[in-house]
């Protein structure tokens, strides 16, 4: 398996624009996570899915953020409208079951100017 | 709710020496898991070692071992024979046993000096 695949690797956008980050989890993994990493706040869990169903979205900062998982092999994290404070590295991760290792993608570095 | 505290923002160690990274956590769960992840400059998050809270024996993975003190809620990572490739950010993390919500600490930046 190629591992967790995220796209794009880098994204630069202007404030107010819509941004969509994409993730393909490892085949067979039941859990998918979206994390945000910043110098100030470290790694924050934004939302996670189990079997394509959102289980906990309490980490989503505000209504401008939304995440979907239409099928077992694809998920998106959308920010609309984007703001400079959204600049961060966004990681997608997947795992087989609770308590097992989470495999991370390479991350998307988002810069909002 | 779970919290993870890493009190050492930065550390350094001479190549071939041993270093210990500290981590304390708090959880209300009876069953939970503990992890150490490594993030090198490439940004990739890599699992270093994993411990199940109900197992008393400390986990070991080659040069990496943990000192798990359940009563003290402490989970330190020992790196033996440090190598230049060990230079990275190290994150301590925990998740409950019944569901998958991993909480990470703020990380310790480790520099291995040649």
Describe this entry's structure for a reader.
The complex is a heterodimer of chains A (113) and B (114). Chain A has 113 residues and is an all-beta fold. Chain A is built from no helices and eleven strands. Chain A has strands at residues 5-7, 10-13, 19-24, 31-38, 42-50, 53-56, 65-71, 74-79, 88-95, 103-104, 108-112. In chain A, the strands form two sheets. In chain A, strands 2, 4, 5, 6, 9, 10 and 11 form a seven-stranded mixed sheet that branches. Chain A starts with a strand and ends with a strand. The model of chain A has no long low-confidence stretch (mean pLDDT 93). Chain B has strands at residues 3-5, 10-14, 19-21, 24-26, 32-39, 46-52, 60-61, 64-69, 74-79, 88-96, 103-104, 108-113. The mean pLDDT of chain B is 93. In chain B, strands 2, 5, 6, 10, 11 and 12 form a six-stranded mixed sheet that branches. Chain B is built from no helices and twelve strands. Chain B has 114 residues and is an all-beta fold. Chains A and B meet through strand 5 and strand 9 of A and strand 6, strand 10 and strand 11 of B.
Going by helix content, strand content and strand pairing, the class of chain B is: mainly beta
Model regions low in confidence, pLDDT < 50 over at least 5 residues of chain A: none
Tally of helical segments of chain A = 0
Strand content of chain B: over 45%
Report the major sheet of chain A. 7 strands, mixed
Please tell me the overall pLDDT of chain A. Answer: 93
Overall SS class of chain A: mainly beta
How many DSSP-defined strands of chain A?
Answer: 11
**Strand proportion of chain A:** over 45%
What multimeric state do the chains show? heterodimer
Q: What count of helical segments of chain B does DSSP give?
A: 0
Biggest beta-sheet profile of chain B? 6 strands, mixed
Order of helices and strands of chain A: EEEEEEEEEEE
Q: What is the radius of gyration of chain A?
A: 13 Å
The average pLDDT score of chain B comes to: 93
Question: What general form of chain A does the structure show?
Answer: globular
Unreliable stretches of chain B: none
Order of helices and strands of chain B: EEEEEEEEEEEE
Biggest interface: A-B, 21 and 23 residues
Shape designation of chain B: globular
Q: Span from first to last CA of chain A?
A: 36 Å
């Amino acid at each position: 398996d190629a591992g967790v695949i995220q796209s794009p690797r880098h994204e630069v956008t202007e404030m107010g624009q819509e941004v969509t980050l994409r993730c393909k989890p490892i085949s067979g993994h039941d859990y998918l996570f979206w994390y945000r990493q910043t110098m100030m706040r470290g790694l924050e869990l934004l939302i996670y899915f189990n079997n394509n169903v959102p289980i906990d979205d309490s980490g989503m900062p505000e209504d401008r953020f939304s995440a979907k998982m239409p099928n077992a092999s694809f998920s998106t994290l959308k920010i609309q409208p984007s703001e400079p404070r959204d600049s961060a590295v966004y990681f997608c991760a997947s795992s087989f079951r609770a308590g097992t290792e989470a495999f991370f993608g390479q991350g998307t570095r988002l810069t909002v100017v | 709710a779970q919290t993870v505290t890493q009190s050492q923002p930065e550390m350094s160690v001479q190549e071939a020496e041993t270093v210990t990274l500290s981590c304390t956590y708090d959880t209300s769960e009876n069953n939970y898991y503990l992890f150490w992840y490594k993030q090198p400059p490439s940004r990739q998050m890599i699992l270093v070692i994993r411990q199940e809270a109900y197992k008393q024996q400390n986990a070991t993975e080659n040069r990496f071992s943990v000192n798990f003190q359940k009563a003290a809620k402490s989970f330190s990572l020992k790196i033996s024979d440090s190598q230049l490739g060990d230079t990275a950010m190290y994150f301590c993390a925990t998740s409950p046993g019944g569901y998958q919500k991993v909480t990470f600490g703020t990380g310790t930046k480790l520099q291995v000096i040649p």
